[in-house]
Amino acid sequence: MSEQISRRDVLKGLAVAGAAVPLASALESPALAAPAIPDVPLRWLEGRPAEAPGTTWGVPWPKGAVPVSSAKEQAFALTAADGAAVPVQTWPLAYWPDGSLKWTAHAIGPGTPVAESYTLRPGPVAATVAAPAKPVTVKDEKQYVDVDTGVIRARVRKSGSELISQIWRGETEIARKGQLVNLRQGKIDDDDDRTVEVDSYLSDISKVEVEQSGPVRAVVRIEGRHTSKKGRSWLPFTIRLYFYAGAESVRMTHTFVFDRDGQHDFVAGLGVRFRVPMRDEPYNRHIRFVGDGHGLLTEAVKGITGLRRDPGAAVRKAQVAGQRLPDIATWDTRVSSRVHLIPDWGDYSLAQLSSEGFTLKKRTKKGYGWVAVDQGRRASGFGYVGGASGGFAFGLRDFWQRHPTQLDIRGAASEEAEVTVWLWSPEAGPMDTRFYHDGMGQDTYPEQIEGLNITYEDYEPGFGTPLGIARTSELTFWALAATPDAARLGAMADAVRTPPLIVAPPAHLAAAKVFGGLFSPVDRSTPGRKTIEDRLDFLFDYYRKQVEQRHWYGFWDYGDIMHTFDEDRHVWRYDVGGYAWDNSELSPDLWLWYAYLRSGRADVFRFAEAMTRHTGEVDVYHLGPWAGLGSRHNVQHWGCSAKQQRISTAVYRRIFYFLTADERTGDLMRALVDSDKTFLAIDPLRKIRTEPYTPDPSALAIGLGTDWSGLAAAWLTEWERGGDPVAEKKLKATMRTIAAMPNGFVTGEGLYNLSTGEFAPAPKKVAVSHLSAMFGQVEICAELIDLVDMPDFERAWLQYCRLFNATKAEQAAETGANFGNLILKQGHSRLTAYAAVRLRRDDLAARAWTEFATGDGYAPDLPWKSEKVTTTLNPTDEAAWVSTNTTALYGLAAIQNLALVGDKLPT
């Protein structure tokens, strides 16, 4: 492509055709006019939803498209497919270094009907932007915060145990006393005797902050701990409440941090509880649960169907439909005179104790026997209690995937029902967080290395602790004017299962050149491209099936995948040291996100979303001595003694954050900004160092690969979000001082000064690891080179990219020594491709494709299919040649090579 073609033309071509354009074409002219601001077509990720309680999403913009001088004045208008203006709230998520907008977030409230698609159009502030008919308003008082969506009003308390003290619809109080509940026991009974006492805890609020106040979206953040009546506290929490203009619902994200060592205090129940006033007669009170699909339990507290005497068809029909019954004076008197003899069923409990089954039971009241209602496979996690004059609906996302979960209704026959959504079911027994073996005598580093050499587990006493891990759950609550009909209940359950999300198309994401420009839309225009695309699809579809067939579900497990397969047992090595849960090893998170960015596939997005929720919370420490670090792959997510930046790195969270504007993910990345201090607490190389080393704040030994890339990702994210300027300072200081080393990244490790953010001058040496660039460094360096004009840094990175897969002679000639016997050459082919583009060298492009096809990863002559196996516990698809390390690197290399040098793909 000619250097005279402007970047605007490149972007226009991408947006229109969706074709892959070599990265070099967009980089050849350093000083181009700002591109025209494009209109962005938007769609629903899974297609138009029947129920959309309120939606937030992110959109990227090309560098310079919204200049710094006008960024604060920029308005964004949203129109539906039919041209109707849609009220939208907009705020910035990230900026380009020149100050122009890089990412914006947008929110809309519920609309009727929901449009099939939308167009987002930037314009001057004077542009007509629709205002919501019922804007959400926030009143921040001394003791509470009142939020009014125009349909419902909620009072958020600033102290005490009640997060939401009341929810009104008009003048009717629908729910009250919204609290967090927790059951704790001090030990686990391993024998038949059950003698453990269980203590009850409630939420205890310490801080409330209004993060957004409308007009379309309001967000209230609540922090606190769970506290018992005896004054004992544990399990710090962060709750966010989301309100949308015109909505009759409240969305909640519930985060707790496990702040015990896992050996002594155990969660026996964890949930969210509301009280619901019951104003209607018992026969006008309704219970609803949505099971598999739209399967529905339709019952009344006092049922008048199936009786020996018939109250009348109109009466029976109304109760089943959830409508107010005709006046009791109109019923058949043989029923109305005996209505007091019909039991009131006030308590219901739905427990999902595994991914494969739930049970539903009911009773009249406490102290009396439970009656089995039914069983099913996978409940939606949605229920309702209320009546003809109003009621309360509640839902927990990933209900069966994150078993054991439970939905309880108590006292529906009284004046006040109690609803509890259990994130951890009290019927499941305590949450067992104990380490899974006794150490087997591995008390010294040499013994631990021997263990690593047999089970691949890096064990160390006291390190296999969950102290500081977290979990975030998503819930939705509706305050309704009456009992919904079956179709509405099904739609609400769908909105809980799969919250509707608006997305920009892959062509626009690629045209904006975010995330380093390392992806291009899916393209099957040539046989070579089609072959690679088909193999990428096979690998994703295989893992998607493995999650289901191998049942990779559960509260702490859902979202992760396994590391390595055991061909002899025909199972993944779930019980073999470091071969079990993957914990982001070699960047499967990035493989999935880049696969989504280029394809727009909803199933890929949801798979990547679940992994991001898991790896960012469960595999990372959020308090304690290792806060800011993650745990390497292991039988337990927290089991490995390698606590490192390569797992906690913000590069695995960035894409999800910018696509969704999710505040919790933003918190996770912001918490990593000061994680350079963790190198004072723990030395990643402590077991293999041959020289004495004591961490020194002015000379911390930090690897230039997995360590620095994790720090750089956090600093970059904070800088572009407009945060702490220290992040920008440290980022650029490390870039400059790495570039100043005689061998740059090839040096391997540097001595870092916490105060200045600089690496000390280093001697010319060679220390290259096959892992260094495989945990997001490729992606972060591509972004940095695109953002920061620092030629020496680019030179240092391109040297590493050129030489990793070069001959030993070439390595030694340039750096003074060869790199040894390296592996992961297929995964590193994308480094060669990147150097080919930046240096405009066709020989490197050809070498990259040779490395991709003949490296040590997946070979072209593999079967590229799975076989059915019926001799395992459950029938499965098996491809024994597949491993997660290789899959992640093959996927990233294929995606990035196609984007960078796809035009050089051999025929």
Structure, explained:
By secondary structure, the protein is an alpha+beta fold. Among the domains are: 1-33, no CATH class; 34-123, no CATH class; 137-189 and 198-276, no CATH class; 303-342, no CATH class. Helices cover 26% and strands 26% of the residues. It has a 20-stranded antiparallel β-sheet that branches. α9 (588-599) packs antiparallel against α10 (602-617), α9 crosses α22 (884-901) and α15 (706-720) crosses α17. The longest helix has 23 residues, at 527-549. Mean pLDDT is 94; it is low at 1-32.
User: How is the biggest beta sheet arranged?
Assistant: 20 strands, antiparallel
Write down how many β-strands occur, each being a DSSP E stretch of 2 or more residues: 36
Poorly predicted regions: 1-32
The percentage helix is 25-40%
Tell me, rounded to a whole number, the average pLDDT: 94
Q: Give the N-terminus to C-terminus distance in angstroms.
A: 21 Å
Task: From the alpha carbons, calculate the radius of gyration and give it in angstroms.
Answer: 29 Å
- Principal-axis shape: globular
Number of helices: 22
Strand content: 25-35%
Main structural class: alpha+beta
Oligomerization state: single chain
